[in-house]
Structure formats: structure tokens, C-alpha cells
Amino acid sequence: MIMGHVKILEYALSCCWRRKYKNFAIVAVYSFTISILASILFLTNSLKTEVSAVLTHAPQLTVQALSGGRHELISIEYGSIIRKIPGVGEVKPRFWGYYYDSLTKSNYTMIGVTEDSSDLQLLEGELPVDPGQCAIGSGVAKIRHLAVGEDLVLIDSSNMGVVLEVTGIFAADSALVANDLVVLPEQELVRFFNLPVNRATDLMVQVYNKKEVNNIARKIKEALPDTRPITRAEIIRTYDAVFNWRSGMMLTIFSSALIAFCILAWDKATGISADEKREIGILKAIGWETTNILELKFWEGMVVSLTSFFIGMIAAFIHVYFFDAPFLVPVLKGWSVLFPPFKLTPNLGLYEVFTIGFLTVTPYVASTVIPSWKNAITDPEDVMRS
């Protein structure tokens, strides 16, 4: 019995090879379609993993001030009001902002730190302590051709040149953390942006019980109606939604490949060639059962679809994790000019692999077997005459 199935599989392989040029064309289109789908899913999942790693160190709760529905500087005195809420630990003001470097046409993220800041790891050097010092991300160092001990020249909010000595270059668990970062002592950053006295960019709130974060956020909103408490979970959900939307947009852009595959499957489903009909008639005439013919066509469809599936998945893996997905990354990562070096960690879930396989392999195999079944149950003489 087992040898019978093996022989049918062997004959199916010979049939595929006999029609090799047609099957090669099908495999090419099929593999290209699968590789596009897989590339988008692989990149989206890896970006989500990357962002989750970054946000592990984010504050449990961030409080921003709002004016006209837009983010503005927050009063540091709000911290004393928030501390009175039961369950709240430390409340620290945070000073940061964005800087556009017209020399390199890049956007930097500038953050003020104190002596006890230890969230980021230095690849080389040390954190800035004195005025006139800074630490920079590897992306800033590369684009400005800087090393530790050299000077970074920026233009402050008063349109005056500021010379900053580079004391360190950052490394981080994720390239997204510090690539575009410029870190200054806190008071130096306040002077650079000319921030008003007793104002901060936002407040970082520590919550003792993680289960109470949403409840604390609600109480802060009640006590300070002109603020917007943002939890770490909300930030993660926002990034997930952004990446899902952008991946959907990419799927829309490449819908032509999907349409090509649908046309291919439809053409396969609407009928089989005269040679294939004649072959089915001959097999029926020499004693093959209907189940044997369906098994033969099943294996033919599986050989083509699985070959395409594995070629497409391997091509997607190489495209994303070896060549950094050059055609997809700019769309999914966003508008920032200063991209970090993007060596993604593979994040292949069985769910994604199964989904791609189910949506691509199953329709093709079904479109191979169903029209063959119609001819397999027809009288062999009628099939060969037709």
C-alpha cells in the first residue's frame, strides 16, 4: 500500500518535470508573491519586537501637558500634586526635544541627563557631566564623522553656535534607542532650548503596583484635567497599530502581485489542458481509480506549491534579515532621515508561517484537484474524445 503511494508521488514528479517550462513560470510568479507577503510580515513582526525591547525601559507612566489638544511644556509643580496620589512613587521631570541639523539634513533627539542617569550604555567614553559636553548616538557620530574628544557644533534656540565636546558614543540593546541621540547635562539642555523656568517636557511617574497604572492615570487626569497621562502599554499598542497600518499599506501597494496570483489560481481552477485531460482518460482506461487520479493531482499541486512556498520564504528571509529589506524599511520605519543600522532579529512565529501557507498553498492545491475530479469521474472514452 505504501509503495503504491510512493509510485504515485514518483509519477507526479515526472509529470511536473514533463511540463517543466510551464511549472517554472508558475513557480516564479508564485514564489514572488509569497516572498512579498512573507517579507512584509517578517519585517513588521521584527519591528514590533524591536520596539518592545526599546520600550521595556520606558517609564510606566508619562504625563504631558496639553493646550488646544497639543503637547506643551508641563509645570514641574504638577509633580507634587501627582506624588500625593496613593500608589505613586517618584515623579521626575524630563527634559528633551528635537533638533534639525541643516548641515546633514537630519533630525536629532536631544535629552538632558543627570549624574545618576544609567538607562543607556556607552560604547566608548562617558556620560556628559560638565557644561559644554555631550554624548552622541552612533548614527550622529557616523554622519558627522565624530569620535570621542572631538567637537560637535550645533545652533541653539538663540541662533548662536554652541560647541560641545563629545565625551561618549552610545551603544544600546536596540539600534532604535540611541542612534539619533544627543545627550547633554540637564541644565545645558535647558539653556540650549531656552526652556522657561520651572517647566519640563514631561513628567515620568513611578507606580508601585503595575496593576494600578491605569487607575493612577485616571486619577491624574481627574486631578489635572489639562494633562494627558500615557501608559507604557498605550505606547506599545500605538506602535503596533502604526506598523500594522503601514504593513497593510505595503500589501496594498503590492496588490498587483496578489492579483497575478489570483488570476493564476483562477485559470488553474477553470479548467485543465487537453493533454492533461487525455492523460487522465488514459490512466482511467488502464485501471486507475478516481482516488488515485485525485492523489496524483494533489501531489502535483503540492510539489509546485511547496516548492514555491519554500523558495518564497527563503527569499523573504534573505531579503529582510541579510539585506535589511531595503525596499520595505523606509515605508515601515517612517520619515526620519537618520536611520539606525537595521540588523533585525529574526522573529518567525508559527502563526505567520501557517497563515502564509494556508492562504497560498491551499487555494492552489484545491484549484489543481477540483477540475481533475470532474474529469476523473467521467467515462475515459468521453474524456479522450473531448
Terminal Cα span: 33 Å
- What's the main sheet like? 7 strands, mixed
- The Cα radius of gyration reads 30 Å
Structural class: alpha+beta
Structural description of this entry:
- With 386 residues, this protein is α+β, with helices and mostly antiparallel strands.
- Helices cover 54% and strands 20% of the residues.
- Strands 5, 6, 7, 8, 9, 10 and 11 form a seven-stranded mixed β-sheet that branches. Strands 1, 2, 4, 13 and 14 form a five-stranded antiparallel β-sheet that branches.
- A hairpin with a 4-residue loop joins strand 5 and strand 6 (106-113).
- Helix 2 (20-55) runs antiparallel to helix 8 and helix 2 packs across helix 11 (290-321).
- It is elongated and about 95 Å long.
- The two termini are 33 Å apart.
Structure keywords:
386 residues, alpha+beta, 7-stranded mixed beta sheet
Give a nutshell description of this structure.
The protein is of the alpha+beta class and 386 residues long. It has helices spanning 2-18, 20-55, 78-83, 138-144, 175-178, 186-193, 213-223, 232-253, 255-269, 274-285, 290-321, 329-333, 350-376, 380-385, and strands at 61-67, 70-72, 74-75, 88-94, 96-101, 106-113, 121-125, 133-136, 151-155, 161-171, 181-185, 199-200, 202-207, 227-231.
